[in-house]
Amino acid sequence: MFGFKKKPVSLDLKAIASGKMVPITQVPDEVFAQKMMGDGFAIEPTQGTITAPADGEIKTLVDTKHAVMMTTSDGLELLLHLGLDTVELDGKPFDALIKIGDKVKAGTPLVTMDLEAIRAAGKKATVITVVTNMDKVANIEVNSTENVTAMDTVAKITLS
Fold it and tell me: 10: part of which helix (H) or strand (E)?
């Protein structure tokens, strides 16, 4: 009746590891670089503890522990992909600290990854955070900060 406009809901995403930020378009993997899975950001980690980028629920933990799917209370679906081609390592350099169905807060440790073992196997340790249901997103703004610490706010998502 009065045409009140609903205030857009926004959500901050935190860095899932300490390290150097990399634009998703510069990840040396076409699926991520071309945003086929969705939009987000990547980090070249300097330490192996991977933490939740937001509050939510763990929906999937793949057997090889190199990928975690979680959903925020706002319905945003997040894929945390740990390393490139690390599925071939059969889970060995990863230790899951969570299970499917766990409710987590931003900063909750999810997985530890042995960066040295991943690099020794000839793989990249790049960790990627992707919003997979972009139809719910009006805008994603990623900070251009070069070096981040786990839990730094690195992206603001405005939901549609």
Answer: strand 10-14
**3-class secondary structure for 138-149?**
EEEEECCCCEEC
Compute the distance between CA of residue 32 and CA of residue 39 in angstroms, rounded to an integer.
Answer: 8
Show which residues are catalytic.
81
How far is the C-alpha of 144 from the C-alpha of 154, rounded, in Å?
Answer: 8
Based on the number of CB atoms within 10 Å of its own CB, is 116 exposed (0-12), middle (13-18) or buried (19 or more)? exposed
Per-residue pLDDT of 100-155, as tens digits, reads: 999 999 999 999 999 999 999 999 999 999 999 999 999 999 987 799 999 999 99
Decide: helix, strand or coil at residue 68. strand
Amino acid of residue 71: T
CB atoms within 10 A of CB 148: 22
Contacts of 124 (CB under 8 A, 6+ apart): 28, 83, 84, 85, 118
Helix-then-strand count for the chain, H and E = 2, 14
Three-state DSSP class for residue 94: strand
* SS3 assignment, position 49: strand
Is the model's pLDDT at 43 over the cut of 90?
yes
